[in-house]
Amino acid sequence: MVPQAGSRKHIPLDAWESKLAAVRVPKDDMNKLIMNFLVTEGYVEAARMFAKESGTAPGVNLDAITDRMEVRRALQSGDVEAAVARVNDLDPEILESQPKLFFHLQQQRLIELIRAGNVESALDFAQENLAPLAEENAEFLEELERTVALLAFEDTNASPVGDLMDVAQRQKTASELNAAILQSQAQEREPRLPLLLKLLLWAQAQLDERATYPRINDIVTAQLVPPTKAE
């Protein structure tokens, strides 16, 4: 049971800031966290500059990141065929060993055909390339049906499945492929920084049951919001 507001401990802003000021995070650890984010997300030039300025080693070959980012850029621009070809050049086993990822790439190709208004080509592609995969997996079949449903609407963006046409769908597929490439290169699939932010939000949710305290409501500004005793 969640305690009533009056039974929770109240921690004022000055006391909270005093505790935060007493925490010492080694600069090297912060630098490694930043470098991890730059490398994982593929900001090659920023990683080079940060390595030069901070003396923090990237831990990977930055030239290899360039190849990975070319794959991501191709997918984000809608050129799925180029992205697939580039991945196969890097490591053909990536797609061979991950049927779900391969399906999502084929699904994205279908979406791009629909976006271009190539209805006949889209239907042929779905039948020849996606239907056989969907026959073997109920999850794939559901996703295929949602994608093909786009063809029933003149304004695909306004349809119930219009989210598939959004740029976010390309980003989602690109992130999935990026994570697979990282895994194949024995690197972390996700940067640590977003994971730490998720941990922060989880910790605040746990603490909400026990105290009123200065919270971070906006992780972009990270500004502490003073509590009120009425909370």
UniProtKB/TrEMBL annotation:
Pfam families in the cross-refs: CTLH (PF10607), LisH (PF08513)
Chain segments annotated as coiled-coil in the UniProt record: none
Superkingdom per UniProt: Eukaryota
Domain CTLH residue range list: 64-121
Protein name: CTLH domain-containing protein
Source species: Volvox carteri f. nagariensis
